[in-house]
């Protein structure tokens, strides 16, 4: 598909959902521009009326691409996959494709939203314990699934949307001091994926808006 301009990603360096989109762009070799949206500064730049026009949920990311604006990371990833050449992010085989979607949804709907900034701000002092509980609960479900589906990567031996979702979630788990060693399949897959260039260049430690003290 011919395009006039580069996609624009409105995101935050440490946002799992923004990171997913950065990984997808990197895997596909797509150049894009980033507009940082600081979720902390000024009470949260995502809460401005200006940003609300891009994403009515007032969350990141929002992606402007091909004349439309998309605001849910899995929808963005699937749009990228369906409109751009390069390695497939969803397998051709229907069973494997369903497994990729199952794993992606388990993370994106069942684990990650419970550590979202607007959630843990409401929890207050118990936010670490809260986050650990729900990450562990999710990983206890995810580990046996991945034991069944994984080859080199989450589903077989090709990188997919499931891998794109897994790595940011493990990063979150480590931020909240979850013992990822309890989940050997998750740990192995994450270590393998972090060696891949697309996951390195998209990492929160090296984004335009990464604070100096968190830069790799």
From TrEMBL:
GO terms for molecular function: glutathione transferase activity; maleylacetoacetate isomerase activity. It is found in: Cytoplasm. PROSITE patterns: GST_CTER, GST_NTER. One of its GO terms (biological process) is glutathione metabolic process. Residues 93-212 form the GST C-terminal domain. It catalyses: RX + glutathione = an S-substituted glutathione + a halide anion + H(+); 4-maleylacetoacetate = 4-fumarylacetoacetate. Residues 5-88 form the GST N-terminal domain. PANTHER family: MALEYLACETOACETATE ISOMERASE. Belongs to the GST superfamily. Zeta family. This is Maleylacetoacetate isomerase. It comes from Seriola lalandi dorsalis.
